[in-house]
Amino acid sequence: MSMAQQAEPALGRPPASGPKESDGRTARRPLALRLLARPEVGVFLGAAAVLVFFLIAAPAVRQGSSMATILYQSSTIGIMALPVALLMIGGEFDLSSGVAVISSALTASMLSYQLTLNVWTGVIVALVVSLAIGFFNGWLVVKTGLPSFLITLGTFLILQGVNLAVTKLVTGNVATDDISDMDGFAQAKKIFASSFDVGGVQVKITVVWWLVFAALATWVLLRTKYGNWIFAVGGNKESARAVGVPVTFTKISLFMLVGLGAWFVGMHNLFSFNTVQSGEGVSNELIYIAAAVIGGCLLTGGSGSAIGSVFGAFMFGMVNQGIVYAGWNPDWFKAFLGVMLLGAVLINQWVQRTATRR
Amino acid sequence: MDRSSPSRSRRLAPIVAVAAAAALTLAGCASAHGGKKAEEAAQNASAGKANTPRMTVALVTHQAPGDTFWDTVRKGAEAAAAKDNIKLVYSADPNAGNQANLVQNAVDQKVDGIAVTLAKPDAMKGVIGKAEQSGIPVVGLNSGLSDWKKLGMLEFFGQDESVAGEAFGDKLNTTGAKKIVCVIQEQGNVGLTQRCDGVQKTFKGTTETLYVNGTDMPSVRSTITAKLKQDSSIDTVVTLGAPFALTAVQSVGDAGSKAKVATFDLNKDLVKAVQNGSIEFAVDQQPYLQGYLAVDALWLYKYNGNYSGGGVQPVLTGPAFVDKSNVDKVAEFAAKGTR
């Protein structure tokens, strides 16, 4: 577990070198180009383009409160997109993350309600369950060596079925009971689902958590040993192992981080809407992955950034809400969404190509 | 699965410890409010049971997993099955091709009757014909009002979505609404589109449509908020399912709008919302009744040759309006999840 892999040339793009460092290899290239070569810069420009576009096309977006709504939608995607991005940099991905959010919310809600406990008990048990799901995914991926696509597709289906069956078994319905009048609810709601006033605009607390988590993830990724491990296992597992990176620990912990994110968003869903429908969450995993990929994460692992996923999630939220603010014909909604996202990704890719071309 | 490795038990130790700690805190953390204890045991209406020989009925719907509406349909069907000494085989798939396979499966099992929804009638044509050739009576429920007769089905129980939408529009006219937004939680669903079209037909003001992602509540919430901000003249939000109505109430708050919320379909939380006035009214197609009648009808047909509507007219289960004036009557049934 030494720090020897810090400057590991075999692992592709050295992640720890921030834009300010110059180590001879990049010295000949102008600063602007070096900046543009960062994986998140393309998506930043893409997101900025989308924002400017909608500021012009949809007057309603110019209000502060509209931006709060857009940021809220982005944050619930973005909080999950962060660990999903880290996992992708680590060379794996997780199809079960969408339904895992609902599994966590269902656990907390049903446990508290059925046993008539303080909701905090449910919240804590849900955390344990979420981490266990992540551990299970990671452990199985590492032990079997099978692609995480297969393993997490299995978990996705298991969770989808379990969510429905257990909820039905326990509550007799397919949705959980309302827990909003129970002890601890108001307190938990403050943490997971409250909002606060900024200059007359109601901002949801998830936006703050999202930015805090993004800062934390960026710091971990770029400034810690663990961050280097993530790039190393994603770039080349075998050479990472050869230089002493604990591959098993890194991969399993990354899956557990996704579990942590699922727990957090699950708690937001629960305390924001009081009840949870067991069929929700399906297909959200693709949105999280999309946000990470738009944000510059390679599908093959080893490259990407946490902050990129922030812009990716923002872009998704912006396009999603912008279409509504613009009042376009809603029949075309999905098509608009797809075109805008593709367009933004193409800008992203073009910037990257231009910047890295010699 | 594998207990051979000692290192694993060491790794599991913290997890066990956390679980144990959680279990210990359970005792001291009981909630004084709400929860299961507050929910009085629902008194089960125990009707008499038929003494006819046991028969098997298949109920095949296009339910998406985890939808509260279909759960109520199924509960109605189960109640009828229990009363009529019927073995109920329930299966569902939102994909039309898969649903057709499930009907084929029921035919292969040689069940005594099939109840089926016709969300995509063309896809079901072939298998329903096969069932009829094998002498299995088929009844329709919920969707397919305009197609059940063409497919030679025995009878039909449901609500005409267009008629329900039209009744909804009429009701809106009496509330003084001028501009509404009709929120569709599943793009491309025929029944949902018919509801909004029906509303538009009779509603005298302006109707707009909005699509939301029904599997992601935070997204539903922010999209409705966005719409209300984009068009501040909207005075009523119309949703097509109970959970979306409850979310729409939050969106109205977020947007600082004065819009009212009205909806299709019920559940127990929605009933509370009607009682406390946060939702104006709900139109109820009585899904429990649809499931119950469809199964019961197959029993009646087998043992007494009856068929409702004489095979010509559908049996309408809705639209029934639930608002402040009659909500208390519905509330006790909704609490059990059967209304």
UniProtKB/TrEMBL annotation, chain A:
Gene Ontology CC, one term: plasma membrane
Any GO MF annotation of the entry: transmembrane transporter activity
InterPro entries: ABC_transp_permease (IPR001851)
One family name in Pfam for this protein: BPD_transp_2
Membrane topology qualifier: Multi-pass membrane protein
UniProt name for this protein: Xylose transport system permease protein XylH
Function: Part of the binding-protein-dependent transport system for D-xylose. Probably responsible for the translocation of the substrate across the membrane.
PANTHER family listed in its UniProt record: ABC TRANSPORTER PERMEASE PROTEIN YPHD-RELATED-RELATED, XYLOSE TRANSPORT SYSTEM PERMEASE PROTEIN XYLH
Keyword Ribosomal protein: no
TM ranges: 35-58, 70-88, 119-142, 149-166, 201-222, 243-266, 286-302, 309-326, 332-351
Domain of life: Bacteria
Residue segments, region Disordered: 1-25
Keywords annotated in UniProt: Cell inner membrane, Cell membrane, Membrane, Sugar transport, Transmembrane, Transmembrane helix, Transport
Lineage: Bacteria, Bacillati, Actinomycetota, Actinomycetes, Kitasatosporales
Broad class of where this protein is predominantly found: membrane
Cell compartments where the protein resides: Cell membrane
